[in-house]
Amino acid sequence: MAHLDMSSWVHLFSFDCLGELNVSKMFGFMERGGDFNGMIKGSDRILIKTGLYTTYVIKERLEKPTETPDMLNSFLKLREAQPDKLSIRDITGSIYINLMAGHDVLAVTLRAILYYVARTPRVETKLRTELATLEPQYAVSNRVPYVELVKLSYLGAVINESLRIHGNLGLINERVTPAEGAIIDGYKIPGGTIVGVNPWVIHRNTEIYGEDADVFRPERWLDAPEAKVDEMKRNLFSFGAGPRMCIGKNIAMVQIYKFIIGFYRHFSAKLIYPDRQWSVVGNWVTKQTEMDMLITALKMVED
C-alpha cells in the first residue's frame, strides 16, 4: 500500500514506455520514481536532451546492431531495403517525434481514466467484472494480446468516455480555408481564414452526447443506437480528425489498453482526497496535477 501522486507516476510511465517502444531503452523515470535532472519539469530542456538522447541511441545501434523488435530497428530495415528513400536524418526525426509528441497526451488520458474511475465506484465495479472474464484463459501474471483487449466492450467504453470528458488538447486544431473560401455550418468564410474547433466544446455538445454530456458515463457508448454511437465516435476529437488525424493514434490506443488492463488487474486505486478536485492547466495539452491516490497491490491467485 502506498500514497502516490498518480498524476506524476503515469507521466513517468509514459516516457519510459515510449523509450522502450521506440529504442528498447527506458529513460529510467520509473526506476528512480521521479524526474531527474529536471528533464520533465523543464520542457525546453527536455526537448534538447531528448534530441541528444535520440542521436546517441541511433549512433549506438548503427555501431552495435541488435534484433530487438522496436521501431528503430523497423526504420533501419526500411532504410536497408530503400536507402534512397529514408535517410538517417529522417529516422532520427521520426524517433525524436515519437518520443516527444506522445508523452504528454498519453499521460493526460491515463490520468483521466484513473481519476474518473476512482470517482465513480459503479464504473470500477463493472470494469473489474469484465476484466475478470479474462482469467480463465489469461492468468493475471500473463500478458493479454491487444486483439483480445479490444473485444472488451466496457473497457473500450471507459476509454472513449475518458477521452471525451477530458480531452487531451485544450486549444483549437487550426486549419486554413482554401483560396476560394468555404461554407462552414451555413456561414461563408473567406479564403485564407484560420478556423478550428476546440475538442472540449465538441465533447460537451448535448446534441451529440446527450443532456448529461458533463457526466462521466461510459454506458453512453454501449446503450445508444449504432448510428448514434457512430456519430459520437466521429466527433471524438482527442486525436483530431480527417487527413491530419494524429498518426500516433493506434500506438497510443495500444498503450492505453495495455496500461489499464495491467494496472487494474494488479492494483486498486482510491483518491486520498475524494472531495477535492484535481488541478487542470488549460493549454495546448490539458495537464492535470494533485491526483494523490492510495495504491494497493491486489492478491494474485494463480492456477
Could you characterize the architecture of this molecule?
The chain has 303 residues and is mainly α. Helices cover 50% and strands 10% of the residues. It contains 13 helices and nine strands. The strands form four sheets. A three-stranded antiparallel beta sheet has the order 1-9-6. A hairpin with a 2-residue loop joins strand 3 and strand 4. Helix 1 packs antiparallel against helix 5, helix 5 packs across helix 8 and helix 5 packs across helix 13. The longest helix is centred in the middle third of the chain and has 32 residues. It is globular, with a radius of gyration of 21 Å. The protein starts with a strand and ends in a 6-residue tail after the last strand. The model has no long low-confidence stretch (mean pLDDT 90).
Entry summary:
The chain is mainly alpha-helical and 303 residues long.
